[in-house]
């Protein structure tokens, strides 16, 4: 099983390389930032099969799609492998939603560019149709309903009393609080790269006064949570705990202003990242697509709010969100390096290599400690 996971990791890096066309060495280092230890939360075999494998195969399925969209020649076997990989990946509830959203973004981008080439829409529509059919099967399958009843009894007995809005809020709050409280190195690097890209783009002073504070806001929230974990007393720690816990407003706490403040900060955190990503790209349509892809990374975790295992699934349900964050990180670095001098490119490469080495050492330490 370990050998298969290693091969899947290589396939994932290869797929990201083919899609982003980024430096393979830098890309390998960035891929090491992915929190693979999250796959140990429910047993390596079960978790990797249900989360990591669909993420990898789903990413690979977009290699052929990317080539078609770029106007390159795609061999028949590549299309077949793309569809087969997608069929396997979309058997998981979270990933099928992400797959549908990404395909929708591709179609929207083609329409914005007024690119109506039949071959481009054909492969996207084939994938989209298969994914939608599988999604309908998942939500109507009697076995999934039986599993939901068992999980509701074991983990969240008041689940059926929640409204649609309640489930959305539960999903959103636990997603943003998870981003902030898990201290995932990949996500922290993502936030700092966004800020660095904005600083680089705003060097000429254009919109500098408003975009700089917006891009720094997510880092500030993450810093508050981090510092709050160090100091264990006072109002600052209470505020930090509220940020990391993401308590949902209900009939027992509706009169506490802190809960409304926290939700507002979560919303501004999300909006700040989206606006910053859009600002970084010269082409606003490209920036908008990538900004929406970050929203997709939030939404794909939010759907866990529709599962009674919301609080029992732990960090593994962030698998697809972090996969999307890694893709966006690679794209942002590639965009930023276009404006770098040779010296800046070399210095940034050393920095990424150092961060990757630190994470590898930290991961080895955690694995040795666990086993």
Shape: globular
Q: Between the first and last Cα atoms, what is the distance in angstroms?
A: 17 Å
The low-confidence runs, each spanning 5 or more residues with pLDDT under 50, are none
The portion of residues forming beta strands comes to: under 5%
Give the ordered list of helices and strands: HHHHHHHHHHHHHHH
Give a short account of the largest sheet: none
Question: What is the alpha-carbon Rg in Å?
Answer: 21 Å
Helix content, binned percent = over 70%
Counted by DSSP, the helix tally is 15
Q: Calculate the mean pLDDT score and round it.
A: 81
In words, what does this structure look like?
There is one protein chain. The protein has 371 residues and is mainly alpha-helical. 77% of the residues lie in helices and 0% in strands. It has 15 helices and no strands. The longest helix has 29 residues, at 342-370. The radius of gyration is 21 Å and the shape is globular.
Chain-wise SSE layout:
Layout: H1 2-20, H2 24-31, H3 44-69, H4 76-89, H5 93-112, H6 118-140, H7 142-155, H8 164-181, H9 185-201, H10 208-230, H11 234-245, H12 257-280, H13 284-302, H14 319-337, H15 342-370
Helix pairs in contact: 1-2, 1-3, 3-4, 4-6, 5-6, 5-13, 8-13, 9-10, 9-12, 9-14, 10-11, 10-12, 12-13, 13-14
